[in-house]
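Q: Predict the assembly, please.
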Amino acid sequence: MRGPEQLRRNEMGGPDRLTSEDPVNSPGRGPLIRLQGVTRVYRTESIAVEALRGIDLEVLEGEFVAIMGRSGSGKSTLMNILGCLDRPTTGTFHLKGEDVSTLPRDRLAGLRNETLGFVFQSFHLLARTSALENVELPLLYRAKPLGWKEIHARAKKALETVGLEDRMHHNPNELSGGQKQRVAIARALVTNPRVLLADEPTGNLDSRTGLEILGTLQELNQDGLTILMVTHEPEIARFAQRIVTLRDGHIISDRRIQPNSAVKALGEWREDVEGEDPEPLGGGDVAGRGPEHRGGAGEAEETENGAQPAPVSAPGGLS
Amino acid sequence: MKWSAIPYIAVRALRRNTMRTALTTLGIVIGVGAVITMVGLGQGAGAEIREQVNRLGQNVVLIFPGERSLGGVSIGGGSANTLTVEDAIALRDEIPEVVAASPEVRSQTLVVYGNRNWATRVYGQSHDYLQIRQWPMESGEMFTEEDVGQRALVAVVGQTIVEELFEGSDPIGETVRIRGVPLTIIGVLERKGMSLMGSVQDDIVIVPYSTAFQRISGRSHAMVINVQVYDERSMDMAREKMTDLLRERHRLAPDQPNDFTIQTQEEVAQAATETSRVMTFLLASIAAVSLFVGGIGIMNVMLVSVTERTQEVGLRLSVGARGPDVLLQFLMEAVVLCVLGGLGGILIGLVATEVIATYAGWPALFSVEAMLVAVTVSAAVGVFFGFYPAWKASRLDPIEALRRE
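A: Predicted assembly structure:
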């Protein structure tokens, strides 16, 4: 597997993205995403659960925002609304300057296809389907269909962007967890989206692979792609430029930080392993989260990841 | 959405579970196969009947003694003694539309030649019977009007007699005995094949009706009068005139019913084909039921498939598939299943028809229309039974669907 430092530049989301013809979306001209007084209430027969209680949030083009919070804080609900998978109960959501909070289902599907890209914790790749075909999937649902040649070419390019051009014809069960997530990222990038939404993208990965994925995201962000990442781990959030923290449906903090560099962290992690340090990630970023403690929710998934880039087998790792 | 991707996605999905696909398709294969077989055999039987009716002769009218309804049609003779030789002669001589009329009398008896004998049907007919039946001679000659007048001891025989009594050698000039009466064979008929009732028409000896009445059957009345009418257009007119003539000759009062029944070739054909049509319809209905059951199987499997692939649907929705796209995808899967089944069914049906036709000795007819109908119907079954599962899939909420295990 390629390390993030070997990643190619994102040819698709390059700076030309910023010279968009739509003036509203250019940086400095207005936020790409603007939520105003967004609430989301889930009603069952007897009770109403308020998952979001008035969210105001603006995200500019080119930002890398981490959305943090414990389970039940409303971060998943917020992510669903930002991803146009759900609509706010009250309040407005402007995407690219357009109010999308009341659009019908099919228009939202169009937005998900053209403007947004999703990366999930559990990858959600189609089984027994090659990496290339998985990446082609969003292009099949374009409102203006492309020719097959163009579809193949774009999917191939997206896979090259994440460094998986040599795994194009492999099925997901022949890929490691990190490779699967890269395929998922390529799938999110293939439509040339404005926003990448990543829901716990490292949640099912060991820490080293997680760092590599974060490195990929940072690279994409440096090339101008707006990224929103949901995580419950503070040490993961620290790789973003801005951390929005939710609790009980409210934003309790919204701060900009100097992000950690995933490339650097990966380098330090390597040194630590080679220096027989039982805490593989220096700098306290992922302290106490050595590879052997990983797993949890991701354990079931990882059983099929035949090719774990195993820090456990690194010299001294288990000694 | 990219339309050409829909069948591709459907085939991919079906190939992922080959065994299930094969078993699901089997229901449709059997259903379509049964329909094709039943329709094929039924049509074959119908065609055979039409063929046999044509073999009956051209513009032929049969007059039976006694009142008989169309439903109880039988080509065999009735028991009433109302038709006479004189009736037949009067029909021929007094009605211009009637070209020929032959009073018929049959007996089932033994034919003896040397030390061989053979049970056959002996027909008494007039000299123009072969013209009525459009039955050519293979060799020799038919007896003449004079032979009939003189009650000549002559006979014309069918191919079965030649084979059974003469072992294929030329029988002309030989003498056979029927009920002790020596008859000289003067002609051999061409092969005619099976009759409407399934009997071998070539198993026949034809003698002048005068000879048959006096020397062989011992009867005095005709069992049937075979009549040939000039052409098809004169049929109704001839029928009317024949009815009037026979009523007059039989001295029936206006309030008395006919003591004879006139049946045209067309009516005989209708009665015969009606039976085969009813049978075909019944068999095809049973086959259609099995196709329906196959369709329910498709629906069942599609429902399971949608449940299993909820996550996949969620993912497709989240990358931009619309409800109709998902609906089409699952609908296409059901249709592909059914069309595959339809094609398999046609194959099985053709083989089954051929096998049954060969072993049972029935004719089989393969119609391209039946196959087209089968494929169309199976595709329609796919749409009909695939719609509900596909609609269910298209209504899924992407968030819920992604979360479902």
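The two ends of chain B are 27 Å apart (CA to CA). Chain B touches chain A through 25 residues (CB under 8 Å).
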